[in-house]
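Exercise 3.2. Students should predict the tertiary structure of the chain below and write it as structure tokens, then compare their answer with the key that follows.

Predict this chain's 3D structure.
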Amino acid sequence: MTGIGVIGCGTVGATLVAALAARAEEFTGTNELVLVDRPEGRWRGRAYQRDTEAVLANGPMIGMSLYLNDPEHGVRWAEARGLAVHPDGRGVHRFLSRPVYGDYLEDGVEEALEKLRAAGWSVRSVEETATGIERDGDGVVIRHASGSVRVDHAVLCVGGRADGDAYGLRGTPGYIDDPYPLREALAEVPEDAEIAVIGSGMIATDVLMALRAFGHQGRVTLASRSGLLPSVRRKAAPVRPGVLTAERLAGLPKPLRLADIAALAREEVEAAGGDFAAITTDLLDPAPAEERLRRQLDDALSSDIGTQLLQRAVIDIGQDLWLALHESDKQEVLRTLHSRLWSFASPIPQSTAVKLVELCDEKRLRVRGGIETVERDGDGFLVRYEDGEADRADLVVNAVTSVYRPEPPSAGGLLGLARTSGVLADHPHGGIRVDEATGRALTPSGEADDRLFVLGELTRGAYYFVSAVAAFTRRADEIAASLAALPEAASPEAAVSVAR
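Answer key:
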């Protein structure tokens, strides 16, 4: 029997189970899937828990399928339940709420497990958090509170909260360290409280939408280094990049420089009659947050598809571009461009943008850049900025989404022991070192381990786009393919395919 262990059963783990089910016929012999994680919130992850319906999923359903090669899977699930997921008559995208998308994840995994069982797999669940992983000959031992389980191969899918405490406020009264689940974290916020949210990205907009739905009437200040809100999603357009493609990229000399990628992006946009100069100005020299928000909302139904082409290219080959990029340019992206790139690549729904504008009109929302410190001050907080100004707040909410994200606290012990024993090694950009083509964990000496794989946010050093379902599904499929091709797992057909 070949045993495959999944350590971490959140959204990342869900994509791996689906990928294994999609390739079930490529495995031979007797196989067992061992799922190791606590039972609470399984498959929903941090963001898709049973929470307020006021907060929407990250993207339209067509881009959030559990299956890499079946993008309509989630759409079919939604249509079967009478949920509207197609763009409206003006081309405005529709989105599921985060908890409803969590329902899809739960149902999708159950469907995948049924496929695996039908293919002869057995499924075992260890409903405890993993506390350690060790290599043991030709296998991996996964330790948990009440014992251990040995498998032939393991995939580390650990996720959860991974936001830092940059200002040392954890445990301070009035400081909300983790805003999820929103309904619980924000339940006791007074209606008229002056709130400072540290961060201005996707998590910050979730906090705003939840506070608005819960009836909060006070002012909220989003305080971040960049002062950037996420971009506003433009109308649906059936775009297919013709320049920024895997085929074109494969033929280019490596490594690429940022100027090379910019030239390809310009060619892509201008071939479609788009305004590349406007896109780059918005990216590199953005207007103040409120002005930019209003302009992007006004332009959201424009016939210029340049933005959609580039956002589609990020989904299609964004990871390939990152892997091909010169090391010094990777450093430049992480140091100076990250917030701007993520603002562009992770747009918010138009309906969310409309609500943000309403909050601005009501003088209940401000966005400020250049945050410097946040400190306790009497019965509240003082937020200081680089320009010497300061704001007072009754409460502070942590919504940081830094590029240098720390590891989830729940995984600290597990990862620390794995490093000490030489099972895992740190990547210089953060996270765990992996073989970029297969997701295999690399040992401190740089050897790829056929027995241990890493998927999700823990690979943030090797890969760049590690926070989206589309990124998870692609890497999950690569890992499933690697597992299926191993000698003890591969069916004759899979072995022939690999030999070719």
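Discussion points: Residues 98-118 form the longest helix (21 residues). Confidence is low (pLDDT under 50) at residues 491-500.
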